[in-house]
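Service request form, structural biology core

Requester: graduate student, group of Dr. S.
Request type: structure prediction, single chain
Budget code: on file
Notes: please return the result as structure tokens.

Sequence provided:
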Amino acid sequence: MASPPVDLIAVDLDGTLADEQNRCSLVDLRAMHAVAQKGAYVVIASGRMHAATERFWHEAGLNAPILSYNGAMVKHPRDGFIWFHLTVPAAFADAIVDFCETNGYHLNYYLNDHLYVREETAWSRLYHQRTGSVIEPVGSLTRFRGQSPTKLILIDNPETTDTLREQFLQQFGNRLNIIKSNDEYLEFMHPGANKARTLQRLAHQLGVPRERVLAIGDGNNDIPMLRWAGYAVAMGNAKPAVKEIAHYVAPPIEQNGLAIALIDIFKLDEKEVYGS
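Core staff response, request fulfilled:
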């Protein structure tokens, strides 16, 4: 297979680089570093908060900013400079908080790159296990009334989040970006926040044309990004809809699929990636 000319690679985090226990393979990290050493911008593109992605950036030895909150923020770990930031309008955030507090749903509230919850629950423990995010129980989230958070996530069983998504879509329409990034996660963001739009904006700022952008991911929230990029890679553990649009399907995360794809596509030295 001919190696595509790529100057910018966007790498999803959960299910692509990090597993459900928030672990990542040293082999995958070395492969990302090797691509960056070749002169490409390697960007972590995650639905997580920025603070929960930084350790992967440092471990991989990257140099480009991080795309976080599913595209609502672009921030550089080196100097903390925020390139781009979109927030949920206060009135909408307040309405979601009121609904969850009235009906007893667990809600993650992201403000100023801090994650607040009403109280610790089984859902907050699950989220911490998966992401390692620092979670701050603060009592009623109505204390943040009038604030514009970066994102909110309602966490519940898949059937409930399916039903509630339809309900909230009827309420907010296209005034919010409402997605299920995970079976249990119902996310609320600014309507302009998605990985594709923000990756496009970042590519423009870096002077990289679309055809020289590669994106790799596994989830439904990665589909817009993979559709926009000039070259799309799906993980072997990806949702079927993700695989359908990919130019290349890598092995699953458990088999270092990210590293295998990068070695193949960028013709990396396997000894450098796997170690001698």
